[in-house]
Amino acid sequence: MSYGLADDVVIVTGAALGIGKGIAQAFLDEDARVILVDINRENLLDTVNEFKEKYGEDKANELMVDIRDPSGCSKIVEFAIESFGKLDVLVNCAGIYPSTSSFEITEKEWDNVFDLNVKGSFFLAQAAAVKMKNQKNGGRIVNISSTASEVARPGVAHYCSSKAAVKMLTQVLSLEWAQYGIRVNAVGPGLVETATLIATLTTEEAQKEHKEKLSYCPIRRAALVQEIAEAVLFFASDRSNYITGQNLLVDGGYSAGRVFQSKTI
């Protein structure tokens, strides 16, 4: 089932691994052309080479940029134009999730979370929107938020605050840019079965903690990366033409309320 994204030009940040990689691959499966952005050079090159072998040399290109630097955000947009001639979609997926007690968070750690999760997303969206406005064909921006944008978690005050900021940023930009045909939405994953997550489940304690987390989810499993990518494709496609300013939580029902029974439904 196609989303009608063939030949669209898409920027995906945080694309070297995990959810970002899955989103980039989903667009390539739709015959879009994708700029993969990350600061992890080795993994970025491995992913891009994998995609070029599978989809063709002219379908994917990579750029190693730190989006915490606003000047780097402009470089990403210009690189997309130089590579493929236009820009249709931006997916702001790059982010970090450190876990630290609120008594111990330092100013440096707090700033690092906000610089990447919020400032980077804003200035890249700004640079992309300027180009989309000038193209006069509109565009679509999808921010990756989190269930943490709406449901508090202990030990991640900076992360929860940053994702709440991403949610509000999505709403504000959707209001400002709708007149230019630019739709701005967010997808908020819950627990996702990435390779990084699986790699942490090597001890009985880690597996027990993972099962406990799943016990709070009515569907009782982690999301597949592809399921997060499907929501992004929807917001990037014409099927969501009348939707903007929304934060769609793809979380198996986690944010709807608490499930107290411990047995499998």
From TrEMBL:
<dbReference type="Pfam" id="PF13561">
    <property type="entry name" value="adh_short_C2"/>
</dbReference>
<dbReference type="InterPro" id="IPR002347">
    <property type="entry name" value="SDR_fam"/>
</dbReference>
<comment type="similarity">
    <text>Belongs to the short-chain dehydrogenases/reductases (SDR) family.</text>
</comment>
<keyword id="KW-0560">Oxidoreductase</keyword>
<dbReference type="InterPro" id="IPR020904">
    <property type="entry name" value="Sc_DH/Rdtase_CS"/>
</dbReference>
<dbReference type="InterPro" id="IPR036291">
    <property type="entry name" value="NAD(P)-bd_dom_sf"/>
</dbReference>
<protein>
    <submittedName>
        <fullName>SDR family oxidoreductase</fullName>
    </submittedName>
</protein>
